[in-house]
Amino acid sequence: MRVSVLSRLALVLAFVLPLAAAPAIAADEGPDRDEALMEDAKIREFASFFPTEPGGWVRDLEPDVFLSDTASTISFTYLSLTQGGVGFTITLTFSNDVSSQYKKMMRSEEERATWGFDRGKIGDWRALTAIDRGVNKADYVVILSNSRVIAVAPASNVPLPSLDEITRIFGGLDFAAIAAKD
Fold it and tell me: DSSP readout, 25-74?
């Protein structure tokens, strides 16, 4: 059976056009890596990327570090100096699986709706943004690479930290440097 050039072109376009129409998510991402289980000393090198004393907030002295075969995280909790009990946590996750799940959410409106997110931006970086805020639910998630994701979430519920303050502090992080660091 002979396939015409036009038929072959139509077949190629059937695969390429949906990809071309899909929202790009990789333009602002760092290099591809295979990451999950990190060495403790290596993950602690990333502590320098977290702000130490953002105006009006105090950071934990030591990071919370979690290491496992599927994902490793480093996080700091920040407490307000002026509003007792108000806080938020910034968490950097190293996991190809977690990054892949968030990329799927970034591409799929149905996934975002299921998990209560919308698409937005933090600076020049695409982000998932919470539709409804809540304690331990990320206000923002930024996919830094195929294996790195950084998120910020309220650590207190009543009252929630100001979204403007969280946006100011989280948006001041050097996402490109975190994505590029070996």
Answer: -STT-------SS--HHHHHGGGGGS-SS-TTEEE-SS-EEEE-SS-EEE
